Amino acid sequence: MFEDLKKSIDKGLDYAFMNAEKLAQAAKDLAKENKLTKEEAKKLYEHLLKKSEEAKKTVESDLHELVQNTLKKMNIPSKDDMKKLEDRIKKLESEKKALIKAKPAPKVVKTPKPKAPKGK
């Protein structure tokens, strides 16, 4: 009984990650084994396809979340963090350029040379 349950679970997981072609063949085989009508076989295929897509999306979502949490724990900046920093640098650079252009050139003040005292 336990072995049958394990086999059923394993088979379900296999179906979850099959491509459409393999799912069609699996549905055909299941329909044949269980003597299903063509309509029932078609419904079974559509059900397997739907469940497979849902399982893939769930795994992808869970994996994405796991990776994001791991990167956060490792203090690795995200793509958004990097984009914010790049934007901030560009803004600071453009402000610096604007200040340099707006700042008048320093005036050179000529000081007169002291005159030598007269007559002595």
Give a concise summary.
This protein is mainly α. The chain has helices at 2-16, 20-33, 38-73, 79-102.
Structure, explained:
- The chain is mainly alpha-helical and 120 residues long.
- It is 74% helix and 0% strand.
- The protein is built from 4 helices and no strands.
- The N and C termini lie far apart (128 Å).
- The mean pLDDT is 82.
Q: How many H/I helical runs?
A: 4
Say what oligomer this is.
single chain
Please bin the fraction of helical residues. Answer: over 70%
Describe the largest sheet. none
Average pLDDT works out at: 82
**Proportion in β-strands:** under 5%
What is the gyration radius calculated from CA atoms?
A: 37 Å
Order of helices and strands: HHHH
Count of individual beta strands: 0
Terminal CA distance reads: 128 Å
* Rough outline: rod-shaped
What structural category do the secondary elements indicate? Answer: mainly alpha
